[in-house]
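dumping the sequnces here before i forget
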Amino acid sequence: QSVLTQPPSVSGAPGQRVTISCTGSSSNIGAGFDVHWYQQLPGRAPKLLISGNTNRPSGVPDRFSASKSGTSASLAIAGLQTEDEADYYCQAYDNNLSDSIFGGGTQLTVL
Amino acid sequence: EVQLEQSGAEVKKPGQPLKISCKASGYSFTNHWIGWVRQMPGKGLESMGIIYPRDSDTRYSPSFQGQVTMSVDKSLNTAYLQWNTLRASDTAIYYCARGVDTTMGEAFDSWGQGTLVTVSA
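..and the predicted 3d for all of it:
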């Protein structure tokens, strides 16, 4: 079980909005460490989607947004498209582990 | 354009050694950490550790300390991940990624394509 907890799966219809949560603790997200989000399309390498809690790298559509509050963070995807079907991972540094850690990942299905 | 080109798939037997590579281009190799990430079959991402090419400062994730060795060759802009003795449980895809600093942390902004390592008798 990962120190950063994500729901195993979420789903939504095309055009809808979905959110993916990432729940941590006082030793990682709650300690003020940045949360980063990655998208991994089937059979592909991960891709940075959001860095530093809320920042979209160049080329990432503004349908993707993220927020952070307390010991949790969330990724929102608006206007779902079939090509958004992928696994999504959050990442943050953990003081107790002295290590950068990934959440367990969330599989997004576009119905 | 930042690129990380990883070496090809490997099939090895338990007990054998292995060294895989990650060649960087399109940026100053010595100015960014390189991280290694494991993905076991059907599983999630696991951070293995990071290495700073300028001085080879290396920080292993606790789960991988003593299990693997990270190194770099600055003259070749290449990072390496090696095992002295492979086990079947090392079967996985291994990714290298470039680290970029954020205000309170580090993200991986560019990734290699992954190297599939299969360890089987």
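The mean pLDDT of chain A is 96.
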